[in-house]
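Narrative of activities, Objective 1.

The group set out to show that a structural description can be obtained from nothing but a protein's sequence at a throughput compatible with the screening campaign. Below is one input-output pair from the validation batch, recorded exactly as produced.
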Amino acid sequence: MIKPVLIANKRIGPGEKIFIIAEAGVNHNGSLHLAKELVDAAKEAGADAVKFQAFKTEEITTRTAPKARYQKRSAPGSSQFEMLKKLELTERDFGEIYRYCTKKKIIFLATPFDEKSAYFLNDLGICAFKIGSGDMNNMPLLRMIAGYRKPIILSTGMADLGEVSLALKALYLSGNKNVILLHCTSNYPTLPACVNLKAIITMEKEFNVPVGYSDHTNGIEVAIAAAAMGACLIEKHMTLNRKLSGPDHNASLEQEEFKDMVLSIRNVSAAMGDGVKRPQ
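Output recorded for this entry:
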């Protein structure tokens, strides 16, 4: 039997209410004001949590690293470094966002992309960590975050079962078994034919932990299907306006679309029932 993971006051796992994360990411474009507006939008849309990305540009990229193909179409800056520097929030900004989420009664989450950011987020009082797909084989970072003894949401884009197993082993040996895996396809946007939702079931059976889904497809259909297949957590990018300049806006939902997705997921979850055949 799979044991639920507790994040704040929410139990996440099979049979529990599906946990929905509005991935604000870097869709604030480096603006604290826009970040707070994203918190408001996530709360109004019915998300359980809003998640940001915490990084120190100098720690994660060189000054000459090129941008990814999808980033070249819409993101500011001529290189990864220049783009990320414009999207970086300060520690003071994150402190304000954290307090604003508390005020708005929505769970604050963040993905640290480097050890300094992980240390800061833990010191800030974050209730759980999200680890992105790009760092699921970053063993020093995994061990450091696991050592904080807080729940971990681990994305698994680009990984096979063997790599997921190694990541889980690193977390477990560091004394942390409060892990939720996310099936994910690391492409922006992802074509439906590349999603492979059945991997949710495969990972749940293989690792006996709660498994959710991080969605990068356009629209809301695939996220709803993932909920119907048993995903205990759905993460989806949210933007205030898909036409804004930035790397992730194009693969994100605007507020009303996100709200429709949340309502659909709740309806699908209610419709699944308990499996007992009887007259209604």
